[in-house]
């Protein structure tokens, strides 16, 4: 749901967007500065991972994140 300076993954437009280019760029190159997600401002820094993980590892992580935080659970 987001905590402190870090935005939520649930409902985050970058996570649920059909076009994943922005999400991939954030993981590869990082992100800093203020960001507004779901009407709330956040200031956490996302480090760049492009030189620490393979493309396949990034794809696996983002597939998991998108799957886990875009699935609507019903009871």
* Lateral arrangement of strands in the main beta sheet: 1-2
Please state the second-level CATH architecture.
Orthogonal Bundle
Segments where pLDDT lies below 50 for 5+ residues?
none
Strand content: 5-15%
Counted beta strands: 2
Number of helices: 3
| Mass-distribution shape | globular
Averaging pLDDT over every residue, what do you get?
A: 87
In CATH's first tier, which class applies?
Answer: Mainly Alpha
Distance between the termini: 20 Å
Structural class category: mainly alpha
Helix content: 25-40%
CATH topology: Cytochrome Bc1 Complex, Chain D, domain 2
Tags for this model:
about 80 residues, mainly alpha, Cytochrome Bc1 Complex, Chain D, domain 2, two-stranded antiparallel ribbon, 3 helices
């Amino acid at each position: 749901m987001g905590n402190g300076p870090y935005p939520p993954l649930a409902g985050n437009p970058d996570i649920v967007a059909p076009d994943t280019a922005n999400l991939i760029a954030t993981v590869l190159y990082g992100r800093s500065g203020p960001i507004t997600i779901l009407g709330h401002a956040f200031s956490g820094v996302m480090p760049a991972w492009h030189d620490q993980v393979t493309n396949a590892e990034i794809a696996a992580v983002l597939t998991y994140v998108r799957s886990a935080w875009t699935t609507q659970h019903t009871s």
